[in-house]
Design goal:
alpha+beta; 2 domains; 3 strands; elongated
């Protein structure tokens, strides 16, 4: 029986992180938490790619951009709204799944 792999994106990703789930920095899947057989801290293990990390060493690393003048210029007039910059989602690719862009 195979385990369902969950790869949250956009606001769903934010919700998973806010609820204490660990997200794999290699493939974006929700990681499993298991006990360290040596009695140390727990281990997060990715069911998709197999990446493992000690609970104490884990930190989610997203690809949030720093909004400098150069970054804003690179968007050539398609500047993300302030809410998008605060969210850190993959603008403009997140527009189809974001409630801010519902018409």
């Amino acid at each position: 029986m195979s385990q369902k792999i969950i790869r949250p994106e956009g606001m769903e990703l934010v919700e998973y992180l806010n609820n204490g789930y660990a997200i794999c920095n290699k493939c974006g899947a929700v990681m499993d938490r298991r006990e360290d057989p040596d009695g140390g801290c727990d281990i997060y293990a990715c069911p998709s790619c197999g990446w493992e990390v000690d609970e104490m060493d884990y930190e989610y690393e997203d690809s949030e951009e720093e909004w400098t003048e150069g970054t804003l210029e690179s968007y050539k007039g398609n500047v993300p709204p302030v809410g998008c910059r605060a969210c850190g989602g993959p603008y403009p690719h997140c527009k189809t799944s974001c409630k801010l862009f519902d018409n």
